[in-house]
Design a protein that fits this description.
The complex is a heterotetramer of chains A (475), B (792), C (212) and D (300).
Chain A lengths: L16 E5 L3 H11 L4 E6 L21 H13 L4 E5 L1 E9 L2 E8 L13 H5 L3 E3 L10 H9 L24 E3 L1 E2 L11 E2 L7 H9 L12 E7 L1 E4 L3 E3 L16 E3 H8 L20 E8 L13 H17 L4 E6 L8 H9 L4 E5 L4 E4 L6 E7 L4 E6 L2 E6 L1 E3 L27 E3 L9 H23 L9
Parallel strand pairs in A: 1-2, 1-11, 2-3, 11-22, 13-20, 14-15, 14-20, 15-16
Antiparallel strand pairs in A: 4-5, 5-10, 6-7, 8-9, 12-21, 17-18, 18-19
Helix pairs in contact in A: 1-2, 1-9, 6-7, 7-8
Chain B lengths: L6 E6 L4 H4 L2 H10 L5 E5 L5 H13 L4 E6 L16 E5 L1 H5 L10 H4 L26 H24 L14 E5 L3 H12 L3 E5 L30 H10 L3 E4 L2 E9 L2 E9 L8 E9 L1 E4 L3 E3 L16 E3 H11 L15 E5 L19 H15 L4 E6 L6 H13 L3 E12 L6 E7 L4 E7 L1 E4 L3 E3 L15 H10 L42 E3 L9 H24 L14 E2 L9 H5 L5 E3 L5 E3 L9 H5 L5 E2 L5 H10 L12 E6 L3 H10 L8 E6 L7 H10 L3 E6 L13 H19 L6 E5 L7 H16 L7
Parallel strand pairs in B: 1-2, 1-3, 3-4, 5-6, 5-11, 6-7, 11-21, 13-19, 14-15, 14-19, 15-16, 26-27, 26-28, 28-29
Antiparallel strand pairs in B: 8-9, 9-10, 12-20, 16-17, 17-18, 22-25, 23-24
Chain D lengths: L3 E6 L11 H14 L1 E5 L17 H18 L5 E3 L2 H16 L1 H13 L10 E3 H16 L9 E4 L21 H8 L3 E2 L14 H4 L1 H17 L4 E4 L2 H9 L1 H8 L7 E3 H8 L17 H8 L2
Parallel strand pairs in D: 1-2, 1-3, 3-4, 5-6, 5-7, 7-8
Helix pairs in contact in D: 1-11, 2-3, 2-4, 3-4, 5-6
The chains are: A alpha/beta (475), B alpha/beta (792), C mainly alpha (212), D alpha/beta (300).
């Protein structure tokens, strides 16, 4: 059984329930803002833990603070919110009904671990099978799996590479995790997960025997629950554009070309490199790092829209070379326009004043790899005054574009989306309100802003049902 | 605390605790020293069965207060929550069993050449070791057991000094919202609040609603396909607002006084008719509101003091807002030159005019909306007559997001020419009229001088945020930005809210005069609980974002009202019912609490005593830490709940060579970091005693001196980053603590102790490896300088 | 042709961007360039030309008519299409380059001794004559591109190359007399004349209604 | 089973006595084996090969390809036009698409065609021979016909520009198309892995007018093949074939290199693998003899 869901039969509540789909920063925010205003909220998340993308980020711009810091606060807010229920490994299958009166059927994948789990870790000790750790994105995977990992959250199987403890030298190996695992140290709910791939194997038995608390339930099966909800907040967030499709940059062909998300994992002290900033090809220090902007964005061959965050992400990441290598670290940012709007301009100015960071107004034409050194060589033209370049770097980071996680026909309901796949605010959406990166390419700050607004729109629907004389919203 | 208290201590043997520790001895400690009335052991306390035993004891009245001796207080929080019952947690799992040193890891005492190496806190535990059932020497078991014993003592002591928070009876539920400012942001906030069932009063200082947007011909599109300018939609908004039954509009009015707190803000609204009298006041009235939204918008930047922009020099150089006025007048007809009403054949838009520059008198920041605004305005011309040449001179085209790029493309497809360049001088073109512009074309890398019939300066936004309440201690010390920001705001700054708060009359500014939150994860965090900034007064933004922002701020205002109604704290300690209580007889009116409160929650009453406002308070305890006479405390968090814990720890005498290190760790970052370190089986000194605290700001120096007097060999404070990019969730807490700790040195001297014995660290939640290391370093330091001379 | 030129200068009064939109193959795309430079960076002849596509597009917007039409850049296009497939804004750059080159010739401003201009011209004349390219004649006339003496030199220098081709029957000396031809040459010529007539008319009369 | 029928546009360079005559020879041998019948477009004309733009304006150049399509629609109704020359394929297909999207140009083009008594419907598919091989026939069947596997040969697949961009072969990438590698492997030879000049330009039509510039490009193409350990280069494009093959002496003279790298068409390889004689395979058309291929072809 997953977490108890008071909201389900509307038990103990006189008012409509708000369903939040997606447990990233936007979904969490929307759920909390609503429930802290006295509403009943159910939050569903498809991963085994909440937090979403930000759990995989090393630092935020422009403060260079740590994303899990705010997450800790939010998780504590959740623990203190009796009227908020969280369902993990859950996804919305269908939504029927009308604004104020929906029936949502939610599919819950088996965790094989019930709520008796104390997160002691005995199961992980006992289980032998290991898998690539999806928490670290594609980092260290072979090109093929890599682009795959980028497009969906799948990980390689247990065959092949052995767990890579030290990645100080030699090619970077993917981080591994056990078949029974806690996705990351701060994962909440603080409960282990069994990888479905060990079910039916000897390992499943081992996990079962190791648990002293009867928390392993190998008979757990996928279940579907029906929820009566008044409004839905859709906060399914974003996924990185598949870098392998940007052919001239050779992601997948050239090992020392990685994505901005992979760099975030690399900086994690508990990540595949133990926080070392190195070249995947040989594990040597990556001191001279190139950042390519609009990698997949503002491009009719890929994503037509501007992903907004990438400029700031690269400015932020340019400080990583400094952080690891001091004056030996250098960064070059290849850009079309630096989009550091409002107060973020302060951060841009600060970075610009660093002599170790170069800015070149140019969309890089293509990347070749030096067969001997493995250095990626960037070819193109500095359009300011026209200068041709062929610059070797230790590592290339693609400031990868942002696309909606759910797109096209994958929505479990009718909803109005724009050409880029983002949800448009539209009366035809009824009481389905999008939040965060489902609405546009947004940074964290604006996602939270958007989620807070979405929370009110949902609250309006709920109150319309309870407060006398309240028209339900029209516009 | 009238009723007699019966403490029940519940010792869990799960997660390896039972194997690593002697539970019977823990039980004995709890009973004898902890003076628990009832002690039970359980193999699996967090299981329904375990929790049930506790409930049963509570029900039968055998137990009134609960001490859970199991895992960290961060784990199983809701499992061990019992309404109306005080609960203390002894952290045996993460704090003791999981955080033991691995075999072979050098112990500081050994390095220090300790005579008795068997006295080490070493217990072999392979990584991922979960049971602690490794063969361990009796003496190793002993030191760990002592650590556990202390945790039991601490928890049992803590519970005796805490009571479950009781309602203050101050709560008032008032579902009305005051919106200051009748522009797009204000009207949106009002409508969205009203739609949720809350009553709203809009106070607008001018005679009509609409604000800046009412002076626009068209606005930037925000719905797909974002290809053409759209109607600002003000008329619709105004009529919706005016007819709404739950919205009252007060135009030609302003706020002359605001006092009180969420749920009961007392606001004096003054009608002022500019026609009559000097300040034009024509009577006022006072009303009560539950929360306040400040949507006072911005003032367009005035470029007249920047000669190189040629604004004063030529009548054919206008600002973007002036162009809107012209367009509004032209009603879609072709615009004519302001100077001589001749038709306009060429227009230049100068981006970042007076912005994104550290030159004095310029705005250092980017106003975000100007690039799209200029595209929109160039379209005015292109659409009226495609033969008009429109050039946008930019340094970066900033049209982010999905719609932004569409709009940029649409501008290009209509023939607007975009040139990357830097303007150096604009002047009058001469008899012919128009303006002469000198700029550097950065792509063709050449100086250009040419005439345009009209030059439009894309000028920025200056926030109408009133007086910067904390001007002297805001932390935006980027010299150039500071230099420019104030210079830009030439308009005489008069207060908007006229708060009666000790900390000043308006919301504190964050940077460049905007009243924004400092937190990335919490854009609506406010330092004046119940008062939220919305729209361009918070951050430069376009209409689309302002409407979203206003909706969000309405959500927060509503939430503040509901919280105030229940006496619950707002984020980050959401739901906390505890609240500072003062022993007035001891108060010396020193005002430290009033001054140091990061949220301006404390006023002074007529007798100049601190007056606490519950619903403004965020329960961080900074006042408690500040109070030199220690008369401020919370029911469940006080000088005693922590102070007595410190004293309850057993201090072995120096011959035993078992130092004691007190670690006061911020519960938001340092403490979770230690928890995670333990989960990963990182070890820290077995001699450390960690106590989580709400915020470093709540640390009263008495705790430190008491600890030293009690014979602790070292004291560590672990808090969040302070300074420009502070991460303290209570804004100034860690900063205040560091300030106070500078004073501790004198104390140390008086006591004849080394400075190294007390140290403050900034620890981030990600310092999973570092935090334990810091503690171990402290153990080494002590090994180096020797035990405290104050042990008895 | 140059009165044609003056006419255009008169008609567009400095708005070269508009002139290009109206009269150059795919010219209406020039305004869509966002100056990222990926085209110039991708061009195999990049190291050799004076101005690359991205610079030319900026020059067009800046009204640098003479410089653009006299530029070598467009003539160095190898039609490799790298620029087209990489352009984030969908500009058919290869065609714009061909279009600019052609328009430059039409305006009488194309660089006089540009070798590719000559080759392109010969190629067109060659195919126009018989409807099919006569490689030998093309080759020979090519040698004499820079005049008689040069031609002899080149011819001698290229002799071994030619011999190789002859040996392998990939060059037939007999071609010089006769060779492959389109049978319906009359219809073929009338078709081309008509096409040229329509196009010139379009340019002389100004943009056709409804065009971009 | 009935032969596969296509409307064939050989192009100037494939004519008898022209630079790619051996291409045509090998294609005929290949098609014969694969039961493909090529029906030449009667009286086809030159496509102007994206170089005639100096004299030829947009419309006249479009008219050239339009005429070929119209002739095909008149005489080879319902058959896809297949070209073996990259430039021919590209010019024709571009014309088709340009006229599809621009009604004014379509109208004007037909006005011009009328002078030659022709009408363009513009409903014909324009394809490259390689597309026919991959999409209509498939590697499997191509493999089935192999009689003399090209064992022991290492071949660099040089795709070049116009067969690859802007259209390319369905499902292949612009930067690293794999079909030539798959094909050579299908024929029993080894392909040069990550041949990094695979899609770079040989200078195309500039080989005549800007020899030193284009030869600098060609040099790198050949060098990369040697680096990859190639015995020969294979290409689908007559311009590429000629440029890369015949200038090697001049390049050697200029750069002091010792290039002697045979350059063949995919069709040559296939003809040989299918057991055709060296003459049928067009091997006699090589300025630089492909000795290894000749040996295989020579085997009884």
């Amino acid at each position: 059984m997953p977490e108890p869901v008071p909201g389900i039969e509307g038990a103990g509540t006189d008012q409509g329930v708000i369903l939040v789909v997606g447990g990233g920063i936007s979904g969490i925010t929307a759920a909390l803002e609503a429930t802290e205003a006295g509403k009943d909220v159910i939050l569903i998340e498809k991963r085994p833990f909440i937090g979403g993308r930000i759990t995989q980020l090393y630092k935020y711009f422009p403060k260079l603070c740590h994303p899990v810091c705010g997450l800790e606060i939010n998780q504590r807010r959740i623990k203190a919110s009796p009227r908020l229920s969280v369902l993990t490994m859950a996804s919305l299958e269908s939504l029927r009904g009308t604004a104020g009166d929906y029936t949502a059927s939610v599919r819950i994948a088996p965790r094989y671990v019930n709520d008796r789990c104390t997160a002691c870790g005995a199961c992980a000790e006992a289980v032998q099978a290991e898998f690539n750790d999806e928490f670290h994105d594609g980092l260290g995977l072979t090109s093929a799996d890599r682009s795959h990992a980028a497009s969906d959250d799948s990980s390689g199987d247990s065959s092949g590479a052995d767990p890579s403890g030290d990645s100080s030298t030699g090619p970077l190996k993917p981080a591994r995790r056990k078949g029974a695992y806690l996705p990351y140290p701060m994962a909440w709910p603080e409960r282990f997960v069994l990888d479905p791939r060990i079910i039916g194997t000897e390992d499943a038995r081992r996990a079962f025997d190791a648990c002293r608390y009867g928390a392993i339930d190998l008979d757990m099966t996928e279940e579907t629950v029906e929820l009566k909800v008044a409004a839905v907040i859709w906060a399914t967030g974003w996924k990185p554009y598949d870098a392998a499709k940007i052919q001239p940059y050779g992601y997948g062909r050239i090992p020392n070309v990685i994505t901005s998300l992979e760099l975030e994992r690399m900086m994690d002290p508990l990540g595949p490199t133990g926080g070392k900033l190195v070249r995947p090809s040989d594990g040597l220090p990556a001191r001279n790092v190139a950042f390519i902007q609009c990698a997949g964005s503002r491009d009719r061959n890929h994503l037509r829209h501007c992903s907004r965050i990438c400029c700031m992400v690269s400015l932020k990441q340019s400080t990583y070379t400094r952080e690891r290598y001091g004056d030996e670290g250098e960064a070059t940012i290849y850009y079309i326009d630096i989009r550091a709007i409002d107060r973020l301009e302060d951060f841009y100015r600060k970075i610009k004043s660093d002599p170790k960071v170069r800015f070149i107004k140019s969309k890089v034409a293509n990347i070749t790899a030096d067969p001997r050194s493995g250095d990626p060589i960037l070819h193109g033209v500095d359009t300011e005054g026209y200068r041709r370049y062929s610059n070797p770097h230790d590592l290339v980071v693609l400031a990868i574009g942002m696309q909606p996680s759910v797109g096209g026909d994958d929505f479990p309901f009718e909803v109005v989306v724009n050409r880029d796949g983002f949800i448009e605010p539209d009366p035809r959406n009824g009481a389905i309100f999008a939040a965060g990166c489902a609405t546009d390419a947004l940074d964290v700050n604006r996602s939270v802003q958007s989620a807070t607004a979405a929370a009110l729109r949902a609250v309006q629907v709920v109150n319309a049902g309870t407060m006398p004389g309240l028209e339900s919203r029209r516009d | 605390m009238a009723k007699e208290r019966k403490i029940g201590a519940y010792i869990c043997r799960g997660c390896g605790i039972g194997q690593a520790l002697d539970a019977d001895r823990l039980e004995e400690v709890a009973a004898r020293e902890g003076r628990a009335n009832l002690v039970r052991q359980h193999d699996f306390l967090c299981a329904p069965e375990g929790v049930e035993t506790i409930r049963a004891d509570l029900a039968s009245g055998e137990v009134s207060d609960v001490v859970v001796c199991a895992c960290s207080g961060r784990a199983m929080t809701s499992t061990f929550r019992f309404d109306g019952v005080a609960v203390a947690r002894a952290n045996l799992r993460e704090g003791v069993v999981w955080s033991r040193a691995r075999k072979g890891e050098s112990s500081a005492l050994a390095d220090a050449g300790s005579s008795d190496s068997s006295e080490r806190g070493e217990i072999p535990a392979k990584t991922g070791e979960t049971t602690g059932e490794a063969e361990v020497s009796s003496s190793e078991r002993e030191t760990m057991q002592e650590m556990a014993d202390d945790h039991i003592r601490m928890a049992c002591t803590e519970i005796r000094f805490m009571t479950p928070p009781s309602p203050s009876l101050e709560q008032t539920l008032n579902r009305t919202i005051l919106v200051v400012g009748g522009g797009i942001s204000g009207m949106t906030a009002a409508l969205e609040s009203a739609r949720a069932g809350y009553s709203v009063t809009i106070v607008e200082k001018s005679a009509t609603l609409g604000g800046f947007a009412a002076r626009l011909w068209k606005r930037i599109p925000d719905r797909s396909p974002c290809e053409a300018p759209v109607d600002p939609g003000i008329a619709t908004l105004v009529s919706e607002v005016s007819v709404h039954e739950r919205i009252t509009v007060e135009t030609s009015s302003k706020i002359s006084r605001t006092s009180g707190s969420p749920g009961k803000f007392k606001v004096t609204i003054e009608r002022c008719d500019p026609a009559s009298g000097d300040d034009g006041s024509t009577g006022s009235r006072t009303e009560t509101f539950g929360a306040i939204i400040q949507a006072t918008g911005f003032t367009p930047f005035d470029p007249s003091h920047i000669p190189e922009l040629g604004y004063a020099a030529s009548g054919d150089v206008v600002t973007s807002s002036e162009l809107e006025a012209l367009a509004l007048a032209a009603k879609g007809e072709a615009l004519v030159r302001p100077s001589d009403a001749k038709p306009i054949k060429s227009v230049l838009f100068v981006q970042c005019a007076g912005q994104r520059s550290s030159k004095p008198g310029h705005l250092s920041y980017c106003s975000g909306y100007c690039c799209a605004a200029s595209i929109k305005q160039a379209m005015y011309f292109q659409d009226a007559d495609p033969s008009i040449e429109t050039v946008v001179l930019y340094s970066d085209m900033r049209t982010p997001g999905s719609g932004g790029e569409d709009f940029y493309r649409s501008g290009q497809s209509r023939g607007i020419v975009f040139t990357k360049g830097e303007t150096s001088a604009i002047s009058a073109a001469g008899e012919g009229g128009g303006a002469r512009v000198r700029y550097r074309d950065l792509i063709l890398d050449e100086e250009v001088e040419r005439d345009f019939d009209l030059v439009v300066l894309a000028t920025g936004m200056v926030a109408n945020a009133g007086v910067d309440s904390e001007a002297n201690d805001t932390k935006t010390d980027e010299p150039d930005t500071n230099a420019s920001a104030p210079a830009a705001i030439e308009i005489p700054v008069e207060s908007i809210l006229n708060l009666t708060y000790r900390q000043g009359p308006d919301l504190p500014h964050l940077a460049h005069g905007f009243a924004d939150s400092h937190f990335i994860c919490f854009p609506y965090e406010t330092r004046r609980t119940g008062i939220y900034a919305a729209g361009p007064v918070r951050r430069p933004m376009d209409i689309a974002q302002a409407r979203e922002d206003a909706t969000g701020s309405a959500m927060k205002a509503i939430q503040a009202i509901e919280n105030a109604g229940r006496g619950r704290a707002a984020h980050p300690r959401s739901g906390d019912l505890s609240f500072p209580k003062v022993r007035y007889d001891g108060c010396t009116q020193c005002k430290r609490c009033t001054v140091e409160c990061p949220f301006g929650a404390i006023d002074e009453d007529e007798k100049r005593y601190p007056l606490f406002n519950e619903s403004r308070c965020r329960r961080c305890g900074t006042c408690m830490g500040a109070c030199p006479v220690r008369v401020i405390s919370f029911e469940n968090y006080s000088i005693d709940t922590v102070g007595q814990q410190i004293k309850s720890v057993e201090i072995p005498d120096e011959t035993e060579n078992k130092p004691r290190i007190l670690v006061l760790a911020c519960e938001n970052d340092a403490w979770p970091a230690l928890d995670m370190a333990a989960r990963l089986r990182r070890s820290w000194s077995v001699f450390a005693r960690v106590i989580p605290i709400r915020c470093l700001g709540s640390v009263n120096t008495i705790w430190v001196t008491d600890a030293l007097n009690a014979g602790y060999d070292g004291v560590m404070l672990m808090g969040c980053k302070s300074g420009e990019n502070y991460q303290c969730h209570f804004v100034k807490g860690s900063e205040m603590a560091q300030y106070r700790m500078t004073k501790i040195d004198d104390t140390l001297e008086q006591l004849g102790l080394e400075k190294e014995r007390v140290i403050t660290h900034e620890v981030a939640i990600t310092d999973i490896e570092r935090a334990p290391r810091l503690i171990n370093e402290m153990e080494r330091t002590i090994a180096r300088i020797g035990p405290s001379p104050l042990k008895f | 042709m140059s009165e044609n030129n003056n006419e255009m200068i008169e008609r567009y009064r400095g708005n070269f961007l508009r002139e290009v939109e109206d009269n150059v193959e795919e010219g209406e795309w020039v305004k869509m360039c966002m100056q990222c430079g990926v085209c110039s960076g991708s061009c195999p002849l990049g190291p050799h030309w004076d101005f690359g596509p991205q610079t030319l597009f900026m020059m067009i917007r800046a009204g640098k008519r003479d410089e653009v039409l006299a530029a070598e850049g467009p003539w160095m296009c190898t039609s490799c299409y790298n620029c087209i497939v990489r352009c984030p804004r969908e500009l058919p750059i290869t065609h714009i380059m061909h279009g600019l080159a052609h328009y430059a010739v039409r305006m009488g401003l194309a660089p006089k001794n540009q070798p590719t201009r000559k080759f392109s011209d010969l190629f067109w004349k060659n195919l126009k004559a018989d409807g099919r390219v006569n490689e030998l004649r093309l080759g020979i006339s090519l040698y004499f591109m820079h005049g008689f003496v040069d031609g002899i030199k080149t011819a001698l220098k290229k002799a071994p190359l030619g011999l190789g081709m002859v040996r392998t029957k990939r060059m037939n000396p007999m071609e010089f007399f006769g060779g492959h031809k389109v049978r319906d040459r009359k219809g073929f010529h009338r078709m081309l004349e008509k096409a040229e007539e329509i196009e010139s008319a379009r340019i002389e009369k100004g943009p056709r209604p409804g065009a971009e | 089973m009935p032969k596969r029928q296509y409307s064939f546009y050989p192009g100037c360079s494939s004519q008898k006595g022209a630079s790619a005559s051996n291409y045509l020879t090998s294609v005929e041998a290949m098609c014969d084996e694969l039961d493909v019948e090529l029906n030449e477009i009667p009286d086809w004309n030159c496509c102007s090969a994206s170089i005639g733009y100096c004299g030829g304006g947009e419309l006249p150049r479009l008219a050239l390809s339009a005429r070929n399509i119209a002739l095909s629609e008149e005489h080879n109704r319902g058959q896809d036009i297949v070209a073996t020359c990259a430039a021919c394929w590209l010019a024709t297909r571009e014309t088709k698409e340009r006229l599809e999207e621009d009604d004014d140009l379509m109208r004007e083009t037909n006005q011009a065609l009328a002078e030659a008594g022709l009408v363009l419907e513009n409903t014909t598919r324009i394809r490259h021979m390689v597309e026919v091989l991959i999409e209509d026939i498939g590697y499997e069947e191509m493999g089935r016909h192999v009689k003399k596997p090209l064992e022991g040969m290492k071949i660099a697949g040089y795709v070049g520009c116009q067969t690859n961009r802007p259209f390319g072969i369905e499902g292949e990438s612009f930067e690293n198309p794999m079909y030539l590698d798959k094909l050579t492997e299908t024929l029993g030879a080894e392909s040069v892995k990550d041949y990094d000049r695979k899609v770079s330009c040989c200078g195309g039509a500039l080989a005549f007018s800007e020899p030193e510039k284009s030869q600098a490009l060609i040099k790198e193409i050949i060098e990369a093949a040697y680096d990859g350990g190639a015995d020969m280069i294979v290409t689908p494009c007559p311009v590429c074939q000629m440029n890369v093959e015949i200038y090697q002496d001049e390049i050697n003279a200029k750069y002091g290199t010792r290039f002697d790298m045979p350059v063949a068409y995919y069709s040559t390889l296939m003809a040989v693998a299918y057991g055709k004689t060296p003459k049928q395979a067009g091997l006699d058309g090589h300025v630089i003899r492909a000795k290894k291929l000749e040996k295989i072809a020579g085997k009884g």
